[in-house]
Amino acid sequence: MIILKSPREIERMKVSCGMAAEILSLLSRLVEPGVTTSDLESLAVAETGKRKAKAAFKGYNNYPSSLCCSLNEQVVHGMPTKVPLKSGDIISLDFGILFDDFYGDAAITIPVGDVSIAGRELVRVTEESLQLGIAQALPGARLGDISHAIQSHVENSGFSVVRDFVGHGIGKKLHEDPQIPNYGRPGSGVRLKPGMVLAIEPMINQKSFDVKVLEDGWTVVTCDGGLSAHFEHTVAITHSGPEILTRIGNA
Ligand code: MF3
Ligand code: CO
Question: Ligand 1, closest atom to CA 68?
């Protein structure tokens, strides 16, 4: 069941979403060779506390950290480590906040130092595909229009869309209906309505879309060892079109 949010509830979600965006932006400024993802986790925890908010992921199905840090061939749900980032890495940071009963969820992928042309291209195309998907989040359109916009840009650029993980509705729960695949046919799926709030999150691989979960039970990696990138925004559908809630300045 898709839970619609009132305009007032969307205003409340802007606050939690704005906090997630702001904290990701602070983290991104720290990313450079030598920094560890456990340093980033510490900053995320401190900034969440300052805002009297709660980190959404820690403890969710026993997930052990507040921040997901997915390096290079890691797709999503990587965990912070004491291994320093090095020039040439790409690092995805995924962060969720609970504040005033509502969740906010966002992710970015950041190139560290000098990254290969292929790596930079993958990051750029993944972010562009998210923006193209968001542009389809219009009242009266269908869920498949979002999925298709993402998939066609990614595949036309020579990359592949992860099938095993998808975006999701979001509100008083981190994961609500509908599921939002990053692949699909235009004109298919549920009709989009004002009041829907969607976490759209393309996970895009350099080579094959096949992924597997490591022994730790969480870290998702590409099967072929190719790079993977991930961007996510929480987006409200309004009468006048999509509104990105995970914008800096909303908190
Ligand atoms: N952004 C991801 C999601 O929406 C992160 C969840 S990590 C988890 O699924 F640990 F909370 F599962
Ligand atoms: Co999400």
Answer: 7
3-class state of residue 232 by DSSP: strand
Q: Tell me if 42 is assigned to some domain.
A: yes
Ligand 1 centroid – CA 139 distance (Å): 27
CA 241/CA 137 separation, integer angstroms: 7
Q: What is the pLDDT of residues 144-190, one digit of tens each?
A: 999 999 999 999 999 999 999 999 999 999 999 999 999 999 999 99
Number of domains in the chain: 1
Establish if 94 belongs to a structural domain. Answer: yes
The reply to whether 249 falls in a domain is no
Tokens for 210, please give them: 């096949």
State the residue for tokens 């983290």.
27
CA of 67 to the centre of ligand 1 (A): 9
1: in domain:
no
Q: Which tens digit of pLDDT belongs to each residue from 118-145?
A: 999 999 999 999 999 999 999 999 999 9
Cβ atoms of residues 74 and 162 within 8 Å: no
The closest-lying atom of ligand 1 relative to the alpha carbon of residue 105 is: 1
- CATH code for the domain of 144: 3.90.230.10
Q: Which of 236, 223, 244, 234 is nearest to 98 (CA)?
A: 234
Rounded to whole angstroms, the Cα distance separating 197 from 221 reads 28
pTM, full prediction? 0.98
